[in-house]
Amino acid sequence: MTMIFVDAAVSSPLDVFSEDAVSDQVDISGHLTSTFDDVVENAIFEHPTLVMDVNRVEQQYYALKAGLGGADIHYAVKANPAPEIIERLVKLGSHFDAASRGEIELVLGAGASPSDVSFGNTIKRASDIAYAHAAGVTLFSADAIEEIEKIAQHAPGAQVYIRLIVESSEADWPLSRKFGCDRDMAIDLLDRARALGLDPVGLSFHVGSQTRKASMWGPTLDEMVKIWDAAKEAGHALSLLNIGGGFPAFYGQDIEAPTDYAASVMDQVRSRFGEVARVMAEPGRGLVAEAGAIVAEVMLVSRKSSRDLHRWVYLSIGRFSGLAETEGEAIRYQITTLRDDDPVGPCVLAGPSCDSADVLYEKQPVLLPMTLKSGDRIVIRNCGAYTSSYSSVGFNGFPPLDVLVI
Ligand SMILES: *Cc1c(COP(=O)(O)O)cnc(C)c1O
């Protein structure tokens, strides 16, 4: 195996500390020309590192866009805020869904136009609303009277859309009742927005993250169109439907191809809503998850007693350093090792920190090679979404997840 030493603190072009045989992979300026796969398989990293393939993000953007047709893609920045990804998406003409001042600064700094940025968090600081308004952002979300009042005060005249609660989620990672309001409240909010001089343009919802099948959108869209029609009857000429995220990534269970999935969602939207002037989609996971892999290592393989059925495999990455979505074992990442040709057996998979919650998979054990041992390289596939952005700054002295974009 060719060893490539990469300083992950430096993103592309890669700085390479070459050993013997890397010269064939280094161009005349001394920079690595290696592909994503080469880096994921061969590069030596000091710490667990998320390697992102920005060309793969581009490919996925076009695939989703092909299915979404006239709908605007507002990338949900929180899924992966790496500046190289934001910059590429700006070049491709993507719009953005930002959740905070920090995310707005990030996308504007990468060249996004403020008119292409929506401030989609329903829980915003008043000073962040004022900042966004001053920066030229004109579209805000709300699900509460007090939020409407904050927006009216700090972003007078802005466009607002109302987020609805979705009860019918079949998502692997549902977004619960934290966001949204019910139908009657939504109409009150539209009225209130208009009374306060805002421009109430539409409605939004989120079917829940990792909604594996497009057909699972049906019940939610059925609910939404009733509210849409009720709002129209109440005198609101709505022009904006924000269908949120939920577009899935491959984690081992079958999913539809992104273009087919997006086209099917749009068909379902059209058949219920007819022609809506402006449809927004906010993919996060579906745009970036499959473009990333984490390179980490095995720290320890052990048994708790000589009669223990399962091995415990402890990795250098865990719940607090990027794998938060293993909570409830909801998202099951694909793990590959250099020993995948050897016989496999079940194990409990855990992270390295001194917190008993830092167990990744236990209820449903993971099959890994019986020969696995400490120091082995492991690769966690399709984890470009909600990993770097969920990594703690240094719980237990473990550094946050390094990110390398190529
Ligand atoms: C997180 C989020 C998204 C992205 O959801 P995915 O399931 O990752 O596509 C979209 N819209 C809003 C408002 C969000 O909070």
From TrEMBL:
Recorded catalytic activity of this chain's protein: L-ornithine + H(+) = putrescine + CO2
Modification N6-(pyridoxal phosphate)lysine occurs at: 78
Q: Which CDD domains match?
A: PLPDE_III_ODC (cd00622)
| Active-site feature positions | 354 (proton donor)
| Keyword Lyase annotated | yes
Q: What class of enzyme is it?
A: lyase
Q: Which UniProt keywords apply?
A: Lyase, Pyridoxal phosphate
Q: Which InterPro entries match?
A: Ala_racemase/Decarboxylase_C (IPR009006), De-COase2_CS (IPR022657), De-COase2_N (IPR022644), De-COase2_pyr-phos_BS (IPR022653), Orn/DAP/Arg_de-COase (IPR000183), Orn_de-COase (IPR002433), PLP-binding_barrel (IPR029066)
GO BP term, example: putrescine biosynthetic process from arginine, via ornithine
Family per similarity comment: Belongs to the Orn/Lys/Arg decarboxylase class-II family.
Record's protein name: ornithine decarboxylase
